[in-house]
Amino acid sequence: MRVKLGALLAVAGLLGTGAPPSHAQAPVVLKVAIVQQIDSLNPFLAVFQSSTEIGRLMYDPLTAYAAADQAVTEGLANRWEPSADKLTWTFTVPAGKTWSDGQPITARDVAFTYNLMLTDEVARTANGSFVTNFDTVTAPDDRTVVIRTKAPQVTMLALDIPIVPKHVWEKVTSVKDHTDDRGPVVGSGPFVLTEHVPGQFLKLKANKSYWRGAPKYDELHFVYFQNSDAAVQALGKGEVDLVNRMAPAQFDSLGDRQGVTRNRAQGRRFTELLVNPGAQTRTGEPIGDGNPALRDVRVRRAIAQAIDLDALVQRVNLGYAEKGAGIVPPVFSRWHWQPTPEQRRTFDPAAANAALDAAGHPRGADGTRFTLRLAGRAGRAYDEQASEYLRRSMSDIGIALDVRLVSDNQLNEVTTAATYDLAFSGWAASVDPDFVLGLHTCGQRPGADGKGGTTDAYFCDATYDELYARQLSEFDETKRQDLVKRMQARFYDQVPAVVLAYDNALEAYRSDRFAKFTTQPAQGGVIMAQHGVWGYYGAEPAGQAAPAARGWGGLAAFAAACASMLMLIAVYVRRRRATADERE
Fold first, then answer.
1. CB contact at 8 A, 501 and 312
2. Which of 162, 508, 545, 571 sits CB 3.0–4.6 Å from 43 for a disulfide?
3. How far apart, in whole angstroms, are the C-alpha atoms of residue 337 and residue 99?
4. How far apart are CA 92 and CA 77, in angstroms?
5. 3 state DSSP class of 79
6. Which residues have C-beta within 8 Å of that of residue 450, sequence separation ≥ 6?
């Protein structure tokens, strides 16, 4: 076969003048396994940890927590100043930050977000406790936000509220019905949501105009798995790059896996057993169908006393956790509470049996006092194993357990509607303890439709609420620590839930694909489930793979064999094409 010089030069001319290559350079994608379903991507409704974590990647808050030491740092605002009486806070939103659609981010977006929460009950569903004490929020100009509070509020630099774009959300007619997942979703964070197929995956692209600078890779995909076994298997096969929420045995199994690096950290989550105390809406109307026996605090205390927390940590967590007590995990040592010897409930089934007898619940002919339903998540190793342990523990005090393991969303429906007796749950605490404390105030109970508030355990207690109000206005940290710990002691005593354990964060990633992740805090911190974006935002690819063979490569080689001049032309053209791909 003869190849004419003119034909080859014509091909070279096409390539040199911008004809697209036959194989574009593949984007660098970080694939993350998630095993928790998404309850909502609407930032005003999202409660699940999986949902709020993705929300933080889409929308920045007013202030943020630094990766290195979790100190308050710049968010959308870069300056803030309280008045002398601590009732007025002025925040500055600097020029130059933009939404992902190119529109400028201004103070009016911040004021719009907070005022939407103040005027729309549904918009307060996820984070309403942050604005309960707000009086007014105004934006006198594009750079300035002024927030006036009814009483001094110590959490003004800890407002974990995603700020939404006014020019988009002012067109939303119903917050309750807005899914906020039709891509591309306009946001201010380091990634832009482009596609969501519920129960399968979410895809986000790097926000090239992000004000901190673009991420170092192109796309971030969250891939849903039914359970952590499947997620860990996918990591081993290289189908995903990052996994957390592993069971201890799964974490141990990856110890010698080539190309995989593990990360064990003191987590900011706790696992709890909810004990329905007689749920009511925030207006005091009964809700749900909890067993009436649980309204008696003596019964709730007896249930707690029959659980051997040390044994549970060793047998189910395999030592990868710390025994539970207060609702602020020990990673936040300033706020963490441990009971004194006088306060501590010791594991004592005999005392628990005596307490149930005294409360008027004798054993029947079969040895059973009454039956309780226990709800948990199907496919979660902890719930499956701990439910069997609890079944035996409760049997020892004459309580039969009806274990019902369901999906994430079904479990959320059960706990929201209070159609449970006992239920596994858990929360991630923040650097400032206010949010997790606020989950247990009377005002956080929802309306009859389950909206307008996010309660953890349907706890409503005047003593607790009074302490909460005092800590919210206490700027002396030593005094505030005392109030926060007294609140946890009250919660522990009244037993609307039993904090079972503070789980270690067990994570693993493909270090042959991603060389580095930013942890929070820097020393001994977590990659996923941070209070910020740093783990995903700071991920660094291990290096670009060698480019795939281009469609014209064979032709260039043939031309080189024919004439050295054509070889030089082909090499020159290929270099131009590779450089163009790297810029994309």
1. yes
2. 162
3. 41
4. 5
5. strand
6. 416, 417
Count of all residues that appear for the chain in the document: 584
Helix or strand or coil: residue 24?
coil
User: Bridge-partner residues for 147, per DSSP?
Assistant: 89, 137
Q: What are the C-alpha distances in Å from 215 to residues 157, 184, 534?
A: 26, 17, 10
Q: Determine how many CB atoms are found less than 10 A away from the CB of residue 397.
A: 22
The token pair that represents 313 in the structure block: 């940590």
Q: Evaluate the CA torsion angle 518, 519, 524, 528 in order and state its sign.
A: negative
The two structure tokens encoding residue 409: 């969303």
Nearest to 408 by CA among 423, 386, 430: 423
What are the structure tokens assigned to 31, written together?
A: 């694939």
Q: What are the E-state strand segments in 251-307?
A: 260-266, 269-275
Q: For the chain (length 584 residues), average pLDDT per consecutive 10?
A: 39 36 77 95 95 97 97 98 98 98 98 98 94 97 98 97 98 97 97 97 98 98 95 97 96 96 95 97 94 98 98 96 97 97 96 98 98 95 96 98 95 94 96 96 83 85 98 98 98 98 97 98 96 97 53 34 36 33 28
Amino acid at position 209, single letter:
S
Q: Is 490 helix (H, G, I), strand (E, B) or coil?
A: helix
Non-local CB neighbours of 420 within 8 Å, separated by 6+ positions: 274, 276, 288, 290, 373, 375, 414
Tokens of 166: 């006014």
State both tokens at 362.
């004798």
* Lookup result for tokens 């799964």: 250
Q: What is the DSSP letter of 509?
A: E
Residues paired with 81 in a beta bridge: 90
Q: What is the pTM of this model?
A: 0.84
Q: Which residue has the tokens 């796309």?
A: 219
Instruction: Round to whole Å and give the CA distance between 373 and 421.
Output: 5
CA distances to 206, 327, 364, 384, 549 from 428, in Å: 26, 10, 40, 21, 47
231 with 33: CB under 8 angstroms? Answer: yes
**Cα torsion angle, 301, 502, 243, 214, sign:** positive
Contact of 90 with 145, CB cutoff 8 Å: yes
Tokens at 57, concatenated: 């990647």
